[in-house]
Amino acid sequence: MAMTEQRETDGATGTGAGEPVRVEAPVGDDAAERATEAAGADAAPEPTPEEAPAPGAETPAEKPADEKADTKADPNAMDGRPGGKEDLLDDGEPIRQGGMDWFVLRVASNKEKSVQQTLLRKVQIENMTHLVGRILVPTEKTKTIKGGKMKVTETKLYPGYVFVEMQLEEDGRIPQDVFFLIKETTGVGDFVGTAGRPTPMAEHEIQKMLMDSRKPDEEPVVKMTFEKGEPVVIREGPFANYEGTVDELFPEKGQVRVLVTIFGRQAPVDLEEWQIAKADEV
Could you read off the pLDDT of 11-37 as tens digits, one per residue? Predict the structure, then answer.
Protein backbone atom coordinates (compact mmCIF):
# COMPACT_ATOMS: atom_id res chain seq x y z
CA MET A 1 0.00 0.00 0.00
CA ALA A 2 1.36 3.46 -0.92
CA MET A 3 2.18 5.68 1.99
CA THR A 4 1.20 9.37 1.87
CA GLU A 5 1.87 12.41 3.97
CA GLN A 6 -1.08 14.75 4.59
CA ARG A 7 -0.74 18.49 5.28
CA GLU A 8 -3.29 21.31 5.48
CA THR A 9 -2.36 24.81 4.31
CA ASP A 10 -4.17 28.10 4.32
CA GLY A 11 -4.52 29.74 0.96
CA ALA A 12 -3.71 27.89 -2.21
CA THR A 13 -4.14 28.56 -5.88
CA GLY A 14 -7.28 27.31 -7.70
CA THR A 15 -9.49 26.34 -4.67
CA GLY A 16 -10.47 29.63 -3.18
CA ALA A 17 -9.23 31.44 -0.13
CA GLY A 18 -9.41 29.65 3.17
CA GLU A 19 -10.22 26.24 1.66
CA PRO A 20 -8.00 23.53 3.02
CA VAL A 21 -5.80 21.90 0.42
CA ARG A 22 -4.61 18.28 0.66
CA VAL A 23 -1.12 17.65 -0.66
CA GLU A 24 0.09 14.06 -1.14
CA ALA A 25 3.83 13.51 -1.16
CA PRO A 26 5.18 10.00 -1.79
CA VAL A 27 7.78 8.86 0.62
CA GLY A 28 10.81 8.32 -1.64
CA ASP A 29 13.84 6.03 -1.41
CA ASP A 30 15.85 8.61 0.54
CA ALA A 31 13.33 8.67 3.33
CA ALA A 32 13.17 4.91 3.46
CA GLU A 33 16.93 4.73 3.72
CA ARG A 34 16.96 7.26 6.57
CA ALA A 35 14.37 5.20 8.41
CA THR A 36 16.38 2.04 7.98
CA GLU A 37 19.55 3.74 9.20
CA ALA A 38 17.77 5.10 12.27
CA ALA A 39 16.34 1.69 13.12
CA GLY A 40 19.62 -0.11 12.80
CA ALA A 41 21.99 2.50 14.21
CA ASP A 42 22.60 0.52 17.38
CA ALA A 43 22.72 -2.91 15.73
CA ALA A 44 26.08 -4.56 15.25
CA PRO A 45 27.00 -5.36 11.64
CA GLU A 46 26.67 -8.95 10.57
CA PRO A 47 29.98 -10.72 10.22
CA THR A 48 31.25 -11.41 6.73
CA PRO A 49 31.98 -14.98 5.68
CA GLU A 50 35.68 -14.36 6.22
CA GLU A 51 35.17 -13.02 9.75
CA ALA A 52 32.72 -15.71 10.83
CA PRO A 53 33.35 -19.16 9.27
CA ALA A 54 30.51 -21.62 9.11
CA PRO A 55 29.96 -23.80 12.20
CA GLY A 56 32.12 -26.92 12.10
CA ALA A 57 34.40 -25.58 9.37
CA GLU A 58 38.12 -26.05 10.00
CA THR A 59 40.39 -23.08 9.70
CA PRO A 60 43.43 -24.02 7.62
CA ALA A 61 46.51 -24.02 9.82
CA GLU A 62 49.39 -21.81 8.83
CA LYS A 63 52.26 -23.80 7.29
CA PRO A 64 55.48 -23.89 9.22
CA ALA A 65 58.42 -21.94 7.88
CA ASP A 66 60.18 -24.99 6.46
CA GLU A 67 57.10 -25.94 4.41
CA LYS A 68 56.80 -22.42 3.05
CA ALA A 69 60.38 -22.32 1.92
CA ASP A 70 60.84 -22.95 -1.77
CA THR A 71 63.02 -25.98 -2.35
CA LYS A 72 64.87 -26.56 -5.59
CA ALA A 73 65.50 -30.23 -5.00
CA ASP A 74 64.21 -32.48 -7.77
CA PRO A 75 61.58 -34.80 -6.19
CA ASN A 76 61.99 -37.24 -9.09
CA ALA A 77 65.76 -37.53 -8.81
CA MET A 78 66.95 -41.12 -8.33
CA ASP A 79 70.03 -42.47 -6.62
CA GLY A 80 72.41 -44.99 -8.18
CA ARG A 81 69.78 -47.73 -8.41
CA PRO A 82 67.00 -47.81 -11.03
CA GLY A 83 63.87 -46.73 -9.17
CA GLY A 84 65.80 -45.70 -6.05
CA LYS A 85 64.85 -42.50 -4.23
CA GLU A 86 67.51 -42.18 -1.53
CA ASP A 87 70.64 -40.07 -1.76
CA LEU A 88 73.41 -42.67 -1.82
CA LEU A 89 74.11 -46.35 -1.18
CA ASP A 90 73.29 -48.22 2.01
CA ASP A 91 76.03 -49.91 4.04
CA GLY A 92 74.65 -53.40 3.43
CA GLU A 93 74.71 -53.35 -0.36
CA PRO A 94 76.94 -55.88 -2.16
CA ILE A 95 80.03 -54.93 -4.14
CA ARG A 96 78.57 -56.54 -7.26
CA GLN A 97 75.12 -57.71 -8.22
CA GLY A 98 74.71 -61.16 -9.76
CA GLY A 99 76.52 -61.57 -13.08
CA MET A 100 77.50 -57.90 -13.32
CA ASP A 101 80.71 -55.91 -13.08
CA TRP A 102 81.71 -52.25 -12.76
CA PHE A 103 82.89 -50.11 -15.69
CA VAL A 104 84.05 -46.51 -16.08
CA LEU A 105 82.15 -44.31 -18.54
CA ARG A 106 83.66 -41.04 -19.76
CA VAL A 107 81.21 -38.14 -19.92
CA ALA A 108 81.30 -34.43 -20.73
CA SER A 109 82.41 -32.04 -17.99
CA ASN A 110 79.60 -31.01 -15.60
CA LYS A 111 77.25 -33.57 -17.20
CA GLU A 112 77.87 -36.37 -14.70
CA LYS A 113 74.59 -35.99 -12.78
CA SER A 114 72.40 -35.43 -15.83
CA VAL A 115 73.89 -38.50 -17.57
CA GLN A 116 73.32 -40.58 -14.42
CA GLN A 117 69.68 -39.55 -14.08
CA THR A 118 68.95 -40.00 -17.79
CA LEU A 119 70.49 -43.49 -17.92
CA LEU A 120 68.64 -44.63 -14.80
CA ARG A 121 65.30 -43.56 -16.27
CA LYS A 122 66.06 -45.17 -19.64
CA VAL A 123 67.01 -48.46 -18.00
CA GLN A 124 63.73 -48.46 -16.11
CA ILE A 125 61.59 -47.53 -19.12
CA GLU A 126 63.23 -50.11 -21.38
CA ASN A 127 63.08 -52.85 -18.70
CA MET A 128 66.83 -53.47 -18.78
CA THR A 129 67.40 -53.75 -15.04
CA HIS A 130 68.62 -57.34 -15.59
CA LEU A 131 71.46 -55.97 -17.73
CA VAL A 132 72.26 -52.63 -16.06
CA GLY A 133 72.42 -52.23 -12.29
CA ARG A 134 73.66 -49.25 -10.29
CA ILE A 135 74.98 -46.04 -11.87
CA LEU A 136 77.01 -43.85 -9.51
CA VAL A 137 78.54 -40.36 -9.35
CA PRO A 138 80.48 -40.16 -6.04
CA THR A 139 80.44 -36.69 -4.46
CA GLU A 140 81.72 -35.01 -1.32
CA LYS A 141 80.03 -32.24 0.67
CA THR A 142 82.24 -29.54 2.16
CA LYS A 143 81.65 -26.28 3.97
CA THR A 144 83.30 -23.00 3.07
CA ILE A 145 83.16 -19.88 5.23
CA LYS A 146 83.69 -16.45 3.72
CA GLY A 147 82.86 -13.17 5.37
CA GLY A 148 81.27 -15.04 8.27
CA LYS A 149 78.78 -16.80 5.98
CA MET A 150 78.79 -20.58 5.61
CA LYS A 151 78.14 -22.32 2.29
CA VAL A 152 77.84 -26.07 1.73
CA THR A 153 79.08 -27.24 -1.67
CA GLU A 154 78.91 -30.67 -3.32
CA THR A 155 82.07 -31.59 -5.19
CA LYS A 156 82.42 -34.51 -7.63
CA LEU A 157 85.25 -36.81 -6.57
CA TYR A 158 85.78 -38.14 -10.10
CA PRO A 159 84.89 -35.30 -12.50
CA GLY A 160 84.26 -36.45 -16.05
CA TYR A 161 83.41 -40.05 -15.09
CA VAL A 162 80.28 -42.09 -14.31
CA PHE A 163 80.48 -45.61 -12.87
CA VAL A 164 78.13 -48.16 -14.47
CA GLU A 165 77.35 -51.65 -13.20
CA MET A 166 76.28 -53.90 -16.07
CA GLN A 167 76.42 -57.39 -17.53
CA LEU A 168 78.43 -58.10 -20.70
CA GLU A 169 77.99 -60.73 -23.39
CA GLU A 170 80.03 -63.92 -23.16
CA ASP A 171 82.58 -62.48 -25.61
CA GLY A 172 83.09 -59.41 -23.40
CA ARG A 173 81.07 -57.01 -25.56
CA ILE A 174 78.31 -54.69 -24.38
CA PRO A 175 74.82 -56.04 -25.27
CA GLN A 176 73.61 -54.21 -28.39
CA ASP A 177 70.46 -52.76 -26.77
CA VAL A 178 72.48 -51.49 -23.81
CA PHE A 179 75.17 -50.08 -26.12
CA PHE A 180 72.70 -47.92 -28.07
CA LEU A 181 70.79 -46.93 -24.91
CA ILE A 182 74.01 -45.51 -23.45
CA LYS A 183 75.58 -44.08 -26.63
CA GLU A 184 72.42 -42.16 -27.59
CA THR A 185 72.46 -40.26 -24.29
CA THR A 186 73.60 -36.64 -24.49
CA GLY A 187 77.00 -36.02 -22.94
CA VAL A 188 78.21 -39.64 -23.07
CA GLY A 189 81.68 -40.59 -24.36
CA ASP A 190 83.33 -44.01 -24.40
CA PHE A 191 83.96 -46.66 -21.77
CA VAL A 192 87.49 -47.09 -20.48
CA GLY A 193 88.96 -50.02 -22.44
CA THR A 194 89.07 -51.16 -26.06
CA ALA A 195 86.29 -50.33 -28.52
CA GLY A 196 83.19 -52.36 -27.73
CA ARG A 197 84.95 -54.25 -24.93
CA PRO A 198 85.14 -52.11 -21.77
CA THR A 199 87.69 -52.99 -19.08
CA PRO A 200 86.20 -54.00 -15.70
CA MET A 201 87.38 -52.06 -12.67
CA ALA A 202 89.88 -53.71 -10.30
CA GLU A 203 88.64 -54.94 -6.94
CA HIS A 204 90.36 -52.20 -4.90
CA GLU A 205 89.05 -49.54 -7.29
CA ILE A 206 85.49 -50.77 -6.83
CA GLN A 207 85.79 -50.80 -3.05
CA LYS A 208 87.14 -47.25 -2.93
CA MET A 209 84.50 -45.97 -5.34
CA LEU A 210 81.68 -47.61 -3.39
CA MET A 211 83.06 -46.25 -0.12
CA ASP A 212 83.04 -42.75 -1.62
CA SER A 213 79.42 -43.29 -2.67
CA ARG A 214 78.06 -44.19 0.76
CA LYS A 215 75.99 -41.88 2.91
CA PRO A 216 78.07 -39.57 5.13
CA ASP A 217 77.77 -40.26 8.86
CA GLU A 218 78.51 -36.70 9.96
CA GLU A 219 77.76 -33.17 8.91
CA PRO A 220 80.14 -31.78 6.28
CA VAL A 221 83.12 -29.92 7.74
CA VAL A 222 85.35 -27.22 6.39
CA LYS A 223 88.08 -28.74 4.28
CA MET A 224 91.32 -27.04 5.27
CA THR A 225 93.99 -26.67 2.59
CA PHE A 226 96.77 -25.50 4.93
CA GLU A 227 98.92 -27.31 7.49
CA LYS A 228 100.52 -26.18 10.73
CA GLY A 229 103.98 -24.67 10.14
CA GLU A 230 103.31 -23.93 6.46
CA PRO A 231 104.55 -20.55 5.12
CA VAL A 232 101.76 -18.34 3.76
CA VAL A 233 101.10 -14.87 2.41
CA ILE A 234 98.14 -12.76 3.55
CA ARG A 235 96.06 -11.63 0.55
CA GLU A 236 93.24 -9.63 2.17
CA GLY A 237 92.69 -7.40 5.18
CA PRO A 238 94.84 -4.91 7.10
CA PHE A 239 97.88 -7.23 6.96
CA ALA A 240 97.71 -7.81 3.18
CA ASN A 241 101.06 -8.82 1.59
CA TYR A 242 102.56 -9.80 4.97
CA GLU A 243 104.26 -13.18 5.13
CA GLY A 244 103.76 -15.53 8.02
CA THR A 245 103.53 -19.11 9.25
CA VAL A 246 100.41 -21.15 10.04
CA ASP A 247 100.32 -21.63 13.81
CA GLU A 248 96.88 -23.20 14.38
CA LEU A 249 93.82 -24.34 12.41
CA PHE A 250 90.15 -23.89 13.37
CA PRO A 251 88.17 -26.09 10.91
CA GLU A 252 84.82 -25.50 12.63
CA LYS A 253 85.18 -21.76 12.02
CA GLY A 254 87.07 -21.92 8.74
CA GLN A 255 89.84 -19.83 10.30
CA VAL A 256 93.63 -20.00 10.49
CA ARG A 257 95.96 -18.44 13.08
CA VAL A 258 99.05 -17.02 11.38
CA LEU A 259 102.21 -15.79 13.09
CA VAL A 260 103.21 -12.50 11.47
CA THR A 261 106.33 -10.47 12.21
CA ILE A 262 105.32 -6.88 13.07
CA PHE A 263 107.97 -4.35 14.18
CA GLY A 264 110.47 -7.14 14.73
CA ARG A 265 108.16 -9.24 16.91
CA GLN A 266 105.87 -12.16 16.04
CA ALA A 267 102.17 -11.60 16.62
CA PRO A 268 99.29 -14.07 16.09
CA VAL A 269 96.63 -12.98 13.61
CA ASP A 270 93.36 -14.88 13.14
CA LEU A 271 92.22 -14.91 9.51
CA GLU A 272 89.64 -16.70 7.41
CA GLU A 273 91.18 -19.34 5.20
CA TRP A 274 90.32 -17.56 1.96
CA GLN A 275 92.35 -14.52 3.09
CA ILE A 276 95.69 -16.34 2.83
CA ALA A 277 97.61 -18.23 0.12
CA LYS A 278 100.49 -20.67 0.08
CA ALA A 279 103.80 -18.82 -0.17
CA ASP A 280 105.03 -20.91 -3.10
CA GLU A 281 101.89 -20.18 -5.11
CA VAL A 282 102.06 -16.39 -4.95
Answer: 434 444 444 444 444 444 444 444 444
